[in-house]
Amino acid sequence: MTAYQALVLSLPKRNSTVRMRVWRALKDTGCGVLRDGVYLLPAASTRATALADVESDIRSEGGFAMAVEMNLKSGAQAEHVRKLFDRSADYGELVDRINTAKAALQRLGLRRAQTQAQRLRRSFEKISESDFFPGPAKSQAEEALSSLAARMGELYSGGEPRASKKRLRRLDAADYRNRLWVTRSKPWVDRLASAWLIKRFIDPAAQFTWIDRPRERPRKAVGFDFDGAEFTHSGSRVTFEVLLASFGLDHDPALAAISAAVHFLDVGGIPVADARGLETVLRGARQKAHGDDELLSEAMRIFDFFYSAYGKEPSAPT
């Protein structure tokens, strides 16, 4: 179980300069706030030694400060304390900035785009330095930075194909028309969203079939969201995100908004305001539907509504 270094303090009430200086120092270390006047850092962190400097500063100004070791006694306590270091919201704000920059790349020009990308990379590194328990949110931010770099490459590298650490290839939707698509039965958020994306933006004539095991896949069918499928999870991307990237749909802000919700509901990571609403509506559709085909039919309407709410109407690929 993780051990923690704690700083218990009481600051001089009338010295606002000291209070601000101490607050900034504690914030820079990435401390978790257990309660007013009690700040924590994982003992193994290189930043834990900074608490001694803060302690000394407070004492020199006439305040009270005491650094102590804290050993937690239960898993519930450990879970509570770990939540104090959750950086998901910080990564979420960063991803919003990255997506805004990505949408503006064409009008920024190469030099300004490079400057913006460098600033965003530095912001990511700053958050990472105090992310003592990294999880899916950090991976999402890394993917967003990679996507920004790939888009810059497309715009400013003379037409060279974009690189992908996940070996995703840019595909032509025309090669995937009038196909049979197959995925696992009892579909949920990622598979339902992926089927909607396929039908609305990749293959308007798509037919879907549902299987219980990968070996049941029909010959020549295009598989998605199961082990060995042509389109499935890659790195931190869920299947919906893989389809977006593969068919060059990841520059559509409305699809990006849906993608963020699908990612959060499928594998966690950066919280998304609309995600729980989407999940609730889909759960209602699942309870009402008689079979997977009927569920998909209802889900198609739901995702159409979400896409429309984000500012666009779905249209068939040209």
Notes on the structure:
The protein has about 325 residues and is an alpha/beta fold. The chain contains twelve helices and seven strands. Helix 8 links the parallel strand 5 and strand 6. Helix 1 packs antiparallel against helix 2 (about 50-60) and helix 8 (about 190-200) packs across helix 12. Mean pLDDT is about 90; it is low at about 160-165.
List keywords for this structure.
318 residues; alpha/beta; 12 helices; 7 strands; elongated
Largest sheet: 4 strands, antiparallel
Number of strands: 7
Q: Cα-atom Rg, whole angstroms?
A: 24 Å
> What global shape is seen?
elongated
* Category from helices, strands and their pairing: alpha/beta
Brief summary of the model shown:
The protein has helices at residues 16-29, 50-60, 75-83, 88-103, 105-108, 110-129, 136-156, 189-202, 239-246, 253-267, 275-288, 292-309; strands spanning 3-10, 32-35, 38-42, 64-71, 180-184, 207-211, 222-223.
How does the SSE layout of this entry go?
Blueprint lengths: L2 E8 L5 H14 L2 E4 L2 E5 L7 H11 L3 E8 L3 H9 L4 H16 L1 H4 L1 H20 L6 H21 L23 E5 L4 H14 L4 E5 L10 E2 L15 H8 L6 H15 L7 H14 L3 H18 L9
Parallel strand pairs: 5-6, 5-7
Antiparallel strand pairs: 1-3, 1-4, 2-3
